[in-house]
Design a protein that fits this description.
single chain, alpha+beta, 3 strands
Length: 64
């Protein structure tokens, strides 16, 4: 039987924590920081935890 391959785009964007939760980076954290407030820049710099419904799909793409 052939092996399942992990989805390349998914493995670059998501990480699974030790407890099994899926984390991802916030959007809007690449450029144009002059027009964003400091609180917004700090908020989008942190990782977020994916919802349970979406994390099931992501784990399947990662082969977990």
């Amino acid at each position: 039987m052939p092996k399942n391959k992990t989805h390349s785009g998914t493995k670059k964007r998501f990480k699974i924590t030790k407890t099994g939760k899926v984390t991802h980076d916030h959007a809007m954290n690449v450029h144009k920081f002059e027009e964003k407030s400091g609180s917004r820049k700090r908020r989008v710099a942190q990782d977020a935890i994916l919802s349970d419904a979406d994390s099931k799909k992501v784990k399947k793409l990662l082969g977990k």
